[in-house]
Design brief:
mainly alpha, about 80% helix
Length: about 290
């Protein structure tokens, strides 16, 4: 009777590393597919679907050395396309809750005119065509091809053999260093777009460390996840103020030229968003 060949410790590590990457990808792609099913069935998993797409795209980009180089780039482009379609709907959802809460916090004396109705009606006019674009996108050949690709990746992610925990750590550390550089550069500037880019880099660093935590390849993964999640959260609030200020300018301009309305309350809300933006900048600098 021939003894089975012994698996060496490096081989065990490589198997575990490949399993962690495969598992992370299949988990996220499964969540994307669940979200697409939910959209078809009339539920509203826009946020959760976009988060799963972001995690998938981040993994494809950061750990591209571990994946079939032919398979990844086109797949990421298509995921980016559909995430963008969903993004228009998500922006309205976020701002509706944000502006309603801000309006509720104002003393009644400072709410001049039908401000709540103006917010609801104008955002509804933005949301309706955005949702229609989602429905139209889901009827295209491009979307059907994306679903087919998602199913193919879910069944067999093209993860290359031979990956090592050391290489995963180095890749994640590189993503973290890039996030740190972008944040440092953004804080020296008044450019909101640089802060937005820093936020995206922080998200990628966070997701990379989530994978490391699955692989159990570094003791710092949990701490790094918390750190970059904090940066992501504060910069996310900052980005929400950017979108809110744009919307409030439009709402205030429309109210200011409509009989029975005026732009006073919208100006107050705009000033509130500016103050929140300054606070966010201070908070992220402290991190």
């Amino acid at each position: 009777m021939t003894n089975a060949p012994q698996v060496t410790e490096p081989e065990k590590t490589a198997i575990r590393t490949q399993s962690a990457l495969t598992g992370y990808l299949t988990d996220q792609i499964g969540l994307v597919l669940d979200g697409l099913t939910g959209l078809r069935e009339g539920t509203d998993p826009v946020h959760d679907t976009r988060v799963a797409i972001r995690r998938t795209r981040s993994t494809l980009r950061i750990f591209k050395r571990e994946l079939d180089p032919v398979a990844g780039p086109a797949f990421e482009d298509e995921l980016k396309w559909f995430a963008g379609v969903l993004g228009d709907v998500r922006d309205v959802q976020v701002q509706r809750h944000r502006l309603r809460d801000a309006l509720d916090d104002l003393p009644e004396l400072l709410v001049l005119g039908p401000v709540g109705s103006r917010i609801n009606l104008d955002l509804r006019d933005i949301e309706a065509p955005a949702r229609e674009r989602v429905s139209e996108a889901m009827e295209t050949t491009r979307y059907l091809d994306l679903v087919t690709e998602l199913q193919r990746w879910s069944a067999a992610p093209p993860v290359l053999p031979g990956g090592t925990a050391k290489r995963l750590r180095a890749t994640a550390q590189k993503a973290g260093a890039k996030a740190d550089r972008r944040l440092k550069a953004a804080l020296k500037s008044d450019d909101d777009e640089l802060l937005h880019r820093a936020r995206k880099a922080a998200k990628r660093a966070r997701y990379a460390n989530e994978l490391l935590q699955l692989d159990r390849s570094t003791k710092n993964a949990k701490r790094n996840i918390k750190h970059y999640k904090q940066i992501q959260s504060v910069l996310g609030d900052m980005q929400d103020t950017v979108v809110a200020r744009t919307m409030l300018r439009q709402l205030g301009a429309a109210a200011g030229t409509t009989p029975g309305e005026n732009g006073f309350t919208f100006g107050l809300l705009y000033a509130r968003e500016e103050q929140l933006a300054r606070q966010c900048r201070q908070a992220v600098a402290a991190l």
